[in-house]
Amino acid sequence: MSPKVFISYSWTSPAHQSQVKEWAERLVSDGVDVVLDLWDLKEGQDKYAFMERMVTDPGVTHVLVVSDKAYSEKADARKAGVGTESQIISKEVYEKVDQTKFIPLVCEFADDNTPFLPTFLKSRIWMDFSSQESANSNWERLIRLLFGQPLHQKPTLGKPPVYLIEGAAVPTNPARAKFETLRQAILQAKPGVGLYRQAFLDTCYEFADSLRVRQRPSANDLGKMILEDCGKLTPVRDHIVDWVLLESTALPSQEFSEALIEALERLRELKSRPEEVTSWQEGWFEAHRLFVYETFLYVVAGLLKSRSYDNLHSIFATHYMLPESDRYGKERFSRFDCFLAFSEALHPVLDPPGQKLHSPAAELVKRQAQRPDLPFSEIVQADLLCLLMAFVFEGVRWYPQMLHYARRSKDFPFFIRAAQRRSFKNLAAITGIDSADELRSAVKAGHERLQVGNWHNFWHDRNFWEAMNMDNLDTVQ
Hints:
By secondary structure, the protein is mainly alpha-helical. The chain is about 50% helix and about 5% strand. Strand 1 (about 5-10), helix 1 and strand 2 (about 35) form a beta-alpha-beta unit.
């Protein structure tokens, strides 16, 4: 059923009346039935009776109060005048109906930037319609309100978390306090920063390890358990990224570079089963695999943000020692693709009704991207850089799941800037390839090796050539 609204306003000026008429026409074009005096008040009709009937009519779902200085003054003083009673709602009329029916649209502000509103409307939430730009900005919000479909809706009440149902205690995360101590040590250049760093990283690791499954989960829904555990691990992700951003910017050093590699290698251990677990199912450890994958992407994004290009080269070029539980045959080391993770168990809890996500892991990362300093777009760019490095290094496989959320027209600032010679040097520092032509050759070879042409469901072309700005690298002075 379409909403029906009555517009109450003051005949402040012909221009104002024309503006109200324009908004009324726009509402009608958006499917809203509008009652307006210019259209519906006929000769011989009582103007005040018409206004009160529209306000109290149960068929009128909302009353739009277009309020400027003249409207608020007349409503408060009940001044007489041509057109006043037909368009100004009094306190008495206002109190006759459900007050949620009224939506104030503010068209004018006082010198102190307070909106002109009648006294009986001052406490209500209003919308800014004081300029064409403001009206356009708030138009969708108004239409959604009239149709009862707000942009932000309260989610359906879910079930209590598994750890409450099962009586399992969630350990307190003490890493924040350790990080604050480390932060002060770094900013004040205190001696023994390494000791503070080690204490901080130990605490992060121990907290994440305490959430690893060591007994057969009794929850019937594995997907929900994984989702809940990933949420519990998000603060650890943020603590580690806070450290990377801080030390790579304030106190970059060879010691930090080595500590970063050791931290990532230790993080990789969390993907594996605990050594004391001898009977298990792979899905039990999926939350930690996704946590490690997400944290690695955030570390890459953080190093890009802090312009730590040598450290980026290091984490991509390093061979990471595998934990004993993941060693097979003579294999002892793995490249950075050891951080990659996928998820099948999250399909039932994340897939939209009637659809199947291309990557539940990417959807999870997107949902958990709440950091204003590293928005999801920068995580997508980090994923693209990981793919580029997989093209560069033989024996590395990487599937850029975040790129499922990259639109075809989306540019990636780091790669766009690499068209400039001085910025290409940053990319060269990461890849270890000084020539743009050599890099293009490596990317082409990597494209064939990874059989990217067989990948599907990406907005960008499947070779990602354009997204990496390959044709334009090092072409601008």
